[in-house]
Design a protein that fits this description.
The complex is a heterodimer of chains A (about 300) and B (about 300).
Chain A lengths: L3 H6 L16 H10 L5 E5 L3 H6 L11 E3 L5 H17 L8 E7 H6 L2 H10 L4 E6 L39 H6 L5 E5 L4 H13 L4 E6 L3 H4 L6 H10 L6 E4 L2 E4 L10 H4 L14 H21 L3
Parallel strand pairs in A: 1-2, 1-3, 3-4, 4-6, 5-6
Antiparallel strand pairs in A: 5-7, 7-8
Helix pairs in contact in A: 2-8, 4-6
Chain B lengths: L3 E9 L4 H14 L3 E7 L8 E9 L14 E4 L21 E5 L4 H7 L5 E5 L1 H9 L5 H11 L4 H13 L5 H17 L9 H4 L1 H10 L10 H4 L20 E5 L9 H4 L6 E3 L5 E3 L9 H5 L5 E5 L5
Parallel strand pairs in B: 1-4, 4-5, 5-6
Antiparallel strand pairs in B: 1-3, 2-3, 7-10, 8-9
Helix pairs in contact in B: 1-4, 1-5, 3-6, 4-5, 4-6, 5-6
Classes of the chains: A alpha/beta (about 300), B alpha/beta (about 300).
């Protein structure tokens, strides 16, 4: 059982002095997950903000071994490390437990790294893949990805006269990962440290692949305030835009049910990327977004047997 | 006679140095000058030092590349003056103008940072917070620069309107940016810039250009292009604490030791002292103020960072 008191005694694996933006959600997520590890960690990182801003040569923010090879192969890199570990263990050269973690943003996970992720999950390597989902290619200047929510304005789906932000709905990656029938899959949020740390602990305890999809507010990309990062991830959960749930060996459990489900406007309003949706002529779009969320929330409740 | 001015802006990502250089270029363009502007930044993001450049001239500008010998330097973030990588004062000569966003008076800033050039100061950050509600200083720095160059308020107004409405659509905010730019424009006096003679002659300009190649891309061995860093968490050596505009200050009397601030810090710099009370390392705290927001007992206060003393 994780205790906050124990977690904070550990030094952060990702140290300060990195050049992630003011108020970035990703390092909060990374440090919470790694502090919950029961063993030393070896990390693989897909190309993205977290990779670029944590290792500006000759500096590194990482207290643990860390490898970056390319955008599309964080999961394959982690697979290779884990295979080597097994080989060394067999030969008696390593005896202790080591946890393997791959980090990727939504670009490196939903889109570019998807093939290698799917392969690594199917091969059954014992590793945890963490996607910090900020909903666009933030590192290169906010281009839409398949995780970008419907209606969000990005530089490649700009809201204006012709379109009202992204025209397509997001890919439901968490459920796609569930379809790989791996032991542990969960969705989490940095505002709920206990839930996130528990999920990380469970993920590290399974003998096989595990996957965490964590919502990660991005102040420059979401056009939100740096100080609101934790608040916004809470609202994402309270509106059911980002439900907290886990799937253990195929069994769905909803970990948090908002007492009162907030209307989606509460989440959209503080973000500049959705500002255009509040024009009177876009009322229909807002309604559509709410309907989609209601539908998904209902289907999730059914899956968890409620 | 050839008239050319080279202006270099230094700021941090997100503060508006790049747009300030555009606002100035566009103002000069409306005034009938040729103008050129461009930013320079690496694989870093919001908060990291960036440089932007504007050249204006009464003849087509054939010079390219970064400005290593500026006539005017606009320092939007005072903390950069001590930054060994940004080096805003490099290439500054006697007779040039250095504008600094600071709470200091010009003579004090001149002495404190040992600047040989003319120094003009204005607290842009305060004006930004008061007039725009946020320290986004593009229009303000552009306004100050336009005044230093002796450009007109009318052209500035048009330029801010054009450049800011390319970024934001909120009409009221655009108006506020115009007001803030004009406020800064009127808050400082234009200044006579005594250029060194070689800058004024066309041929010498070409010579300067030949001496400073635009960008050289040397051959790099594989070890450099795919490097290994054999160190453990050495980024704290790069102090990101000077990104701060506000700093969190703890009132331990009110602290309930809930530790929400510790787990919510993106920079991992809040730690717990032997008495079980949280504190931050100001060396690396970027001042995102998430801790102030998440604290349930309001034990953390945001205090404006000023570099007085």
């Amino acid at each position: 059982m994780v205790k906050l008191k124990d977690l904070i005694q550990k030094e952060p694996i990702m140290e300060g002095g990195h050049r992630m933006c003011l108020g970035c959600g990703a390092p909060i997520i990374v440090n919470l997950i790694l502090r919950a590890s029961d063993a030393p960690v070896v990390l693989a990182n897909a190309t993205g903000c977290l990779e670029v801003a944590s290792t500006i040569f000759p500096y590194t923010a990482w207290r643990s071994p860390w490898i970056h090879s390319a955008f599309e192969n964080a999961a394959a890199t982690a697979s290779g490390i884990e295979t080597m570990y097994r080989a060394l263990r067999k030969r008696g050269k390593i005896n202790k437990k080591i946890n393997f973690v791959a980090f990727g943003g939504d670009g490196g996970t939903y889109d570019i790294g998807f093939q290698s992720l799917s392969g690594a999950l199917e091969r059954g390597h014992r590793f945890l893949y963490v996607c910090y989902d900020n909903g666009a290619y933030m590192n290169t200047g906010v281009q839409r990805s398949s995780a970008t929510p419907f209606g969000a304005s990005t530089t490649t789906s700009p809201a204006g006269v012709v379109i009202q932000g992204k025209l397509q709905k997001r890919k439901d990656l968490t459920k796609i990962v569930v379809a790989h029938n791996i032991p542990y899959v969960a969705q989490a949020s940095p505002h709920n440290w206990l839930d996130l740390a528990k999920k990380a602990e469970k993920a590290f305890s399974v003998d096989g692949p595990s996957f965490l999809n964590v919502v990660s507010p991005c102040p420059p990309g979401w056009k939100s305030e740096a100080k609101d990062t934790i608040g916004l991830s809470k609202i994402a959960v309270d509106t059911c835009f980002w439900p907290l749930y886990e799937v253990e060996n195929g069994k769905y459990t909803i970990n948090y049910k908002p007492k009162e489900k907030l209307p989606i406007e509460a989440w959209l309003k503080p973000q500049g990327r959705f500002r255009h949706l509040f024009k009177p002529e876009n009322a229909e779009l807002l309604k559509q977004i709410q309907q989609d969320i209601d539908k998904e929330w209902e289907s999730l409740q059914k899956l968890s047997g409620l | 006679m050839l008239f050319i001015r080279r202006i270099r802006f230094h700021g941090r990502g997100g503060q508006g140095a790049k747009v300030a250089s555009r606002v100035l270029g566009t103002t000069a363009f409306y005034e009938g000058y040729y103008a050129q502007d461009f930013p320079l930044y690496g694989a870093e993001r919001r908060g990291a030092p960036i440089t932007a450049f504007t050249r204006i001239s009464n003849e087509p500008i054939l010079e390219r590349g970064i400005i290593s010998e500026p006539d005017i330097v606009i320092v939007i973030d005072e903390t950069l003056l001590n930054d060994p990588i940004a080096m805003p004062l490099s290439g500054v000569k006697e007779g040039d103008v250095v504008f600094i966003n600071t709470t200091h008076q010009p003579d004090k800033a001149k002495a404190r940072y040992k600047i040989c050039a003319n120094v003009i100061t204005l607290d842009l950050t305060k004006i930004g917070i008061d007039m725009l509600g946020a320290p986004v200083l593009s229009a303000l720095a552009g306004g100050a620069a336009a005044r230093i160059l002796g450009l007109s308020a009318d052209s500035l107004k048009k330029a801010v309107e054009k450049e800011i409405s390319e970024i934001i659509t909120d009409r009221a905010l655009i108006e506020n940016n115009i007001d803030a730019a004009l406020f800064c424009f009127n808050a400082i006096s234009p200044i006579e810039i005594n250029l060194s003679p070689h800058v004024l002659s066309g041929e010498e300009t070409t010579a300067v250009q030949k001496e400073s190649p635009v960008i050289s891309v040397p051959f790099e061995p594989a070890l450099i292009s795919s490097p290994a860093i054999n160190a453990k968490a050495n980024t704290p050596l790069r102090k990101t604490g000077n990104w701060r505009l506000f700093k969190p200050v703890w009132d331990h009397e009110k602290c309930t030791k809930c530790m929400m601030c510790v787990v919510s810090c993106p920079d991992g710099c809040i730690s717990v002292n032997p008495a079980g009370l949280p504190n931050t390392s100001y060396d690396n705290c970027k001042g995102c103020l998430i801790c102030v927001e998440v604290c349930p007992s309001e034990a953390i206060e945001a205090v404006r960072e000023v570099h007085a003393g």
